[in-house]
TrEMBL record:
This is tRNA N6-adenosine threonylcarbamoyltransferase. It catalyses: L-threonylcarbamoyladenylate + adenosine(37) in tRNA = N(6)-L-threonylcarbamoyladenosine(37) in tRNA + AMP + H(+). The lineage of its organism: Bacteria, Pseudomonadati, Pseudomonadota, Gammaproteobacteria, Alteromonadales. GO terms for cellular component: cytoplasm. The keyword Metal-binding applies. The gene is tsaD. It comes from the Bacteria. GO terms for biological process: tRNA threonylcarbamoyladenosine modification. HAMAP family: TsaD. Keywords: Acyltransferase, Cytoplasm, Hydrolase, Iron, Metal-binding, Transferase, tRNA processing. NCBIfam families: gcp_kae1, T6A_TsaD_YgjD.
Length: 337
């Protein structure tokens, strides 16, 4: 089956074609970063309007890049949720309409399931079962994964997601939008030992997380500092170190609690170099096999939606004409296949 995947959950328009026999055939991504940069964050209405402008040309380009015609598409997968409702409606409306016009089945995909399964696009995909750490701008959760759709959420952020805390702290440091990657780059110039940030919720049992207080601690530290470039770099280093160490502690607890030996890290924050290096060290120290998606599949993209949708279409799932976007959608409510 050749599946067209469409991702429009936030501010990136992603389109891809995945072939269940030969793998990923093509993928295109358009980012709205420049559009939202002046506002310091995503403006939902502007995001929706830009998806409307870009989605059809991007679909045409993706199909052409794969060397296909529309009558060779066997199914359509689109992000149904969670995300910004207006942005989701653009992708779901276009995806469902194309499927109807082409006479092929359509399926709505859970955005976080797409991230969770993104490492499956690699030549060496992780076998089930495994523990998944999903960290992005909107979500931070630890999931026990027994198979596709067989998810148990073991812990999640009770307030800000890790990526959101990165972006907000970057803004406090005066960095441009999107700030998370810029903060990570600034942290590379920082020096250890100048600041010690707390590791939230690691002094109590459980796998839930909280990054709002860490962001507040960073805000107070920044207000009290001298404003020098090296000082800001030291703060960035201490903040990133606290987030990464917190995630490490929680992952180690989850692995011990479930007796799992495989760990998958996915979502936008999974591209963070320090996080990757720190969690990869679990292989050396504890024999844990650690998997990541390729860098291009860490952020929102159509390839992960095409892959996840292909698995569900192969299992016989499809949507009716009354498909609705779901801005809130618990991951553990999905049907197992």
């Amino acid at each position: 089956m050749k599946i067209l995947g469409i991702e429009t959950s936030c501010d990136e328009t992603g389109v891809a074609i995945y072939d269940t026999d030969s793998g990923l055939l093509s993928h295109e991504l358009y980012s709205q970063v420049k559009l939202h940069a002046d506002y310091g964050g995503v403006v939902p209405e502007l995001a929706s309007r830009d998806h409307v402008r870009k989605i059809v040309p991007l679909i045409k380009r993706t199909i052409a890049s794969a060397g296909l015609s529309s009558n060779e598409i066997d199914g359509v997968a689109f992000t149904r949720g969670p995300g910004l409702v207006g942005a989701l409606l653009v992708g779901s409306s276009v995806g469902r309409s194309l499927a109807y016009a082409w006479g092929v089945p359509a399926v709505g995909v859970h955005h976080m399931e797409g991230h969770l399964l993104a490492p499956m696009l690699d030549d060496n995909p992780p076998p089930f079962p495994f523990i998944a750490l999903l960290v992005s701008g909107g979500h931070s959760m630890i999931v026990d994964v027994q198979g596709i759709g067989q998810y148990t959420v073991l812990g999640e952020s009770l307030d800000d997601a890790a990526g959101e805390a990165f972006d907000k702290t970057a803004k406090l440091l005066g960095l441009d939008y999107p700030g998370g990657p810029l903060l990570a780059k600034l942290a590379e110039k920082g020096q250890p030992g100048h600041y010690k940030f707390p590791r939230p919720m690691t002094d109590r049992p459980g796998l839930d997380m909280s990054f709002s207080g860490l962001k507040t601690f960073a805000a107070n530290t920044i207000r009290a500092c001298d404003g020098a470039d090296q000082t800001k770099a030291n703060i960035a280093y201490a903040f990133q170190d606290a987030v990464v160490d917190t995630l490490l502690i929680k992952c180690q607890r989850a692995l011990k609690q479930t007796n799992q030996k495989r760990l998958v890290i996915a979502g936008g924050v999974s591209a963070n170099k320090q996080l990757r290096a720190t969690l990869q060290d679990l292989n050396r120290r504890k024999g844990i096999d650690v998997y990541y998606p390729a860098f291009e599949y860490c952020t929102d993209n159509g390839a992960m939606i095409a892959y996840a949708g292909a698995q569900r279409l192969l299992a016989g799932e499809s949507e009716g004409l009354d498909t609705k976007a779901m801005p809130r959608w618990p991951l553990d409510s999905l049907q197992a296949i």
